[in-house]
Amino acid sequence: MTAVIASADTPARMPAGIPYIVANEFAERFCYYGVNAILSVYMVQHLHFGQAQATVWQSLFKFGAYFFPLIGAIISDVFWGKFKTIMTLAVVYCLGCAVLATGGGQGTLALGLFLMAFGTGGIKPCVSTNVGDQFTSKNQHLIERAFSYFYLSINAGSSFSIYFCPIWLDAYGPRVAFGIPAAMMALATVVFWLGRKRFVVVPPAMTENPNRGLALFALALVPAIAISVAVFNFVGADYRTLAALFALVGQLILIVWLCLNTGLRRKLPTQLVSWMQEAFTGPALKQITGLALIYYIFVAMFWSLWEQSNGQTWTLQATSDLMDKHLFGFLANVPGFSALANYEMLPAQIQVVNGLFILAMVPLFTFAIYPALGRLFTLTPLRKIGIGLWVIAASYLIVAYIENRIMHGIRISLWWQILAYMVLTASEVLISITALEFSYKQAPLKVKSFIMAATYLLAVSVGNAFTAQVNGAMVKPLEASAVATGEQTWVTLKAPGSLRTGQKIDFDGDNGIGITGDDGQPTPLAGTFLIDEIDTAGSRVRLADAVHRKPVASSGEFKAATATVSTYKLVGPDYFLFFAGTAAVTAILFIFVAGFYREKTHVREHDDNG
Description:
Layout: H1 18-45, H2 51-80, H3 82-102, H4 106-133, H5 143-172, H6 174-194, H7 210-234, H8 240-261, H9 264-267, H10 270-280, H11 282-308, H12 313-318, E1 323-324, H13 338-342, H14 352-374, H15 381-407, E2 412-413, H16 414-442, H17 448-473, E3 475-478, E4 480-484, E5 490-493, E6 504-509, E7 513-516, E8 522-524, E9 527-535, E10 540-545, E11 554-556, E12 563-568, H18 573-594
Parallel strand pairs: 1-2
Antiparallel strand pairs: 3-12, 4-5, 5-10, 6-9, 6-12, 7-8, 7-11, 9-10
């Protein structure tokens, strides 16, 4: 597909390809967010992961989903162009969804998530920049509206799947709950193919032997990924995630330097060298360096916090029965409303309010809040981001308050978490939409996909890497010597006096102890439990399950040699207060850094011939 089709549109109107892009994004985001919504619950309740372990796995999945855009952007900008890249990697995406839906263990989970991350990550920078490619300087005033449609489609698709996937998981199990999003991804691929003749197509940098260049790129990339995986497995949990990230990025920088500054340059295709020269030297390099400081530190911190509301720690918090999830329980005594009063949301459904708040807040901010603030001071994109960092920190103070109540056995209404979502969504409007448009406009024309991936999307990846790092490093091993089984389960520990009632405790490995699950079936003593009572005289603690806070009935003989028992260094609300404090410090630093950045907009010049 090489033709540039644009002349059918009046330049001042919305381009004809936009509806296909928006529809494709709706279905693809339905798939991604549907899977993401139930992933932690699936890992904890079906595979018996500990909560920190589940958060690490899901954060690493998201890390891949937002790191692979860097690879997809290079494939798109240099070798294949956006359309071929999207179509090819969408097939990989569909394959990953199918593996996830038909699997049932950690091995198939890892394979399915990897293929999904590679597929969704590879197409992500191409789809978003494809929106901007449809415009010229003559109708660039419509870019903001198009990105708003694009962003609304994301939130509409995610809202539907976030609401229904937890129901399907609860009623029909993981095959149906993961299978329906897989079908939606197949639909997204078909919709995008149907719009192929409507898109403005920006050709890739390499028009001669692009597949040869792609093969050389793969030969350099695969060893770099393998070395980074080795670093992840070799380094201790306190530093492994960030060490692997730095190793991978460092190797990619080294590869680029060798290609441009050694004899290797003469052996590479001329067009490939020219693209690398444009992307990694001169204005583009300066632009990446300036954007990187803003995105990798400040926007990345926003994403570290935001992503935890998206099927992770906020959802796991809501699994506790101490959070009253009867949304309209206050109508219990009102005649005729008993059915509505008895309606109870599932824990993974609560995040749907984020998408609903987006649908309400985008026009509210666009037509009311932004104009009002603009009358007080010049509201630049960087100032929106700075305000948003303070707002998201406030949302975590609310979640910390909720966690404190739950840890101390006090019932609390779901409406408190909905309030936290409302505050968090306000920060999302301020930062996410702003950063998406800002990253596109700041990127030079021929490297837009790459810079979008290297700044906006990689910042999401870095944020998830930070979350995975914190959750991996905060795990604190406990020395368990015995387990007393029966109607109650007591675990003998070394120095239990440092622990607190309501604190989480994880079990893994072959410990020889079995319990009765919620479904009445026997399961291993694995996953996250709570410390319900501490007997310091006997150096032991009594377990309660993390959802219902009821005593754990168990049987079997404890195998201390093959058991793994641990707790968390950040206890209860301390976890959320840590992230709130980190966001506040980041917001303070941003005030000083933002003043040094100089904006420069890049869009295509209008051509009456298309």
